[in-house]
Write a structure and sequence with these properties.
Radius of gyration: 32 Å
Distance between the termini: 112 Å
Strand content: 25-35%
Largest sheet: 4 strands, antiparallel
Number of strands: 4
Length: about 150
């Protein structure tokens, strides 16, 4: 009976160490996986903020008809600084460019005979998130076409 106990003295220790090693590997893998998921969620949130900032810049341009009047007289791209407040790390830019002009005539009861001019514009907005060292964290661009009709 004493010989059986003597043969098994280290078996439980080795088995316990193997199980502990497997649990440690599993815990390390779970930690790395959750860290990666957290980074992906943060990147997704930052991209969403950059996209919404770009959308806001486009909306700022679209809500001011003076931008279209100025752009219809210009053959170049106009840069417009949005008037909404952003965080220091978030910047927004917008441009408006005339893409074409079409004369329309007939069928209008207002100012009959003189017709209208249909301008086609492209409005582009850009939202950017930067770190304090000017490293770009996330950037998003939004483009939208619009037609603006005015009397000839």
């Amino acid at each position: 009976m004493n010989s059986t106990i003597a043969k098994q003295e280290g078996a439980i220790l080795i088995t316990t160490l193997i199980i502990l090693l497997l649990l440690t590997a599993l815990a390390t893998s779970s930690f790395q996986s959750s860290t990666m998921q957290e980074k992906m969620a943060a990147a997704s949130a930052q991209h969403s903020v950059a996209f919404q900032t770009a959308e806001s810049a486009v909306e700022e341009v679209l809500n001011n008809s003076a931008n279209f009047a100025t752009a219809s007289l210009s053959s170049t791209t106009l840069d417009i600084a949005p008037q909404f407040n952003t965080d220091n790390s978030i910047t927004a830019e917008a441009t408006i460019r005339q893409r074409g002009r079409t004369n329309t005539s007939g069928g209008f009861s207002i100012v009959q005979g003189s017709g209208f001019v249909a301008y086609v514009f492209e409005v582009t907005g850009r939202g950017r998130i930067q770190r304090s060292d000017s490293t770009i964290v996330s950037e998003s661009n939004v483009a939208q076409g619009i037609q603006w009709t005015a009397p000839n």
